[in-house]
Specification:
Elements lengths: L4 E6 L20 E2 L3 E2 L1 H10 L4 E5 L5 H7 L13 E5 L15 H7 L1 H6 L4 E6 L2 E2 L4 H10 L4 E7 L9 E4 L5 E5 L10 E10 H14 L4 H6 L8 E5 L5 E2 L3 H10 L3 H8 L16 E2 L4 E3 L2 E2 L4 E2 L2 E3 L2 E2 L4 E2 L4 E3 L2 E2 L4 E2 L4 E3 L1 E3 L4 E2 L4 E3 L6 E3 L6
Parallel strand pairs: 1-4, 1-6, 4-5, 8-12, 14-17, 15-18, 16-19, 17-20, 18-21, 19-22, 20-23, 21-24, 22-25, 23-26, 24-27, 25-28
Antiparallel strand pairs: 2-3, 6-11, 7-13, 8-11, 9-10, 9-11
């Protein structure tokens, strides 16, 4: 049986310009798949592994995060002991300077919180991962190898060079690691921003970071120590998508139209939990035609849709034609509008007979509440 573990989730980017859909919200709460938010996937994997002490580290614009998560009831995290906690930025009393410019500063600000928790291990993870993670197996692997750090990685042919690349021996021990603008031969393992730390080691690294001014979690906590500490890597073999850019978001959304991807994500042993919103069924008009699309509840469909993802309470009127689009909740597409490769944020209205075209590698985004 796996030892006790807690989790700290990073809800946003650190030191990066937010993607367009995350300008007014945290990256963790970007809507996805018709009825979910990005953070729902990793929260569901944690709850499946019976990890019930979860702290969500915020930086700014966290109103939507608080609204979505509430007290954690929908994820079985409304508990007297442990449960879900939203950890807001630390503000110095003598100034208006807000810390948490990077992940290391964020961890320094919650060091006392980590010390007060009784769990032996700490999971650090980003919230922008669309995948089912076997945290139970990862914990067991971490314990069996008496690891100081266990990374989650995947062998990928499309490995991005800006991600942490690792090389492992047959036992899974990390023997080399690299993070930079070019690929290194022999390092085909792409590490996700998911890692299990021994809490004692993590607190030691946080203290050193405060002393020496470290500011990069991957470099200073992990790659700096692979030859002096027991650093292992646990392999993920299923579907995965990391959402950092609009292109990432659009590509991952369109992959949901693949039946095999949906089967793996939503019909596995890990149910994807989200905030419950009761709504009426979707109405399909006599003129409505839908092909290879995902339609949430509460909608009115009178137009023609092909390869689209439509969120709750959307109205698509007669004569509208949509191809390869993502339409978020409470949007209205008027008669005769023609859209291709368009992403509309919430509460968008597209006027009659408007024609809007993006491209699959560069979809056109319409901001929340806009009328076009």
């Amino acid at each position: 049986m796996a030892a006790k573990a807690m989790c700290i989730l990073f809800s946003d980017h650190y030191g990066a310009t937010p993607m367009e859909l995350a300008v007014g919200r945290t990256l963790a709460t970007v809507p996805f798949g018709g009825r979910y938010r990005l953070i729902d996937f990793i929260l569901s994997s944690l709850v499946k592994a019976r990890i019930f002490n979860v702290g969500v580290l915020t930086k700014e614009r966290y109103g939507s995060l608080v609204d979505h998560l509430g007290g954690g009831k929908d994820w079985d995290l409304d508990r007297k002991k442990g449960g879900l906690k939203i950890l807001t930025p630390f503000v110095k009393a003598e100034s208006e300077f807000i810390r948490n410019r990077n992940k290391v500063e964020a961890l320094i600000s919650i060091a006392s919180y980590l010390e007060s928790c009784s769990e032996e291990h700490v999971i650090l993870a980003d919230s922008n991962l669309v995948m089912n993670i076997d945290f139970e197996g990862m914990q067991q692997f971490h314990i069996e190898n008496d690891a100081d750090i266990t990374l989650l990685y995947q062998e990928r042919s499309d490995h991005k060079t800006d991600k942490l690349s690792i090389g492992c021996d047959p036992s899974g021990k990390v023997v080399d690691a690299y993070s930079g603008p070019s690929r290194i031969d022999g390092m085909t393992g792409s590490a996700f921003n998911v890692a299990i730390f021994k809490k004692s080691y993590l607190l030691l690294m946080i203290a050193r970071a405060h002393t020496f001014g470290w500011n990069n979690l991957e470099r200073d906590f992990i790659t700096r120590n692979i030859h002096t500490r027991r650093v292992f890597a646990y392999r993920h073999t299923g579907f995965s998508a990391v959402i950092n850019t609009t292109a990432d978001y659009y590509r991952a959304s369109m992959q949901l139209l693949d039946e095999n991807v949906r089967e793996e994500l939503f019909y596995s042993e890990t149910p994807i939990l989200t905030r419950i919103k009761n709504s009426v069924p979707t109405v399909y008009g006599f003129s409505g035609k839908v092909k290879n699309s995902l339609i949430a509840d509460g909608c009115e469909i009178h137009g023609k849709l092909n390869r689209c993802i439509v969120f709750r309470d959307v109205v698509i009127k007669e004569g509208a034609v949509l191809n390869n689009c993502i339409i978020m909740q409470q949007s209205v597409i008027e008669e005769g509008a023609e859209l291709n490769c368009i992403i509309t944020d919430k509460n968008v209205s597209i006027s009659q007979k408007h024609i809007l075209f993006g491209y699959s590698t560069y979809p056109f985004i319409i901001a929340k509440g806009q009328t076009v």
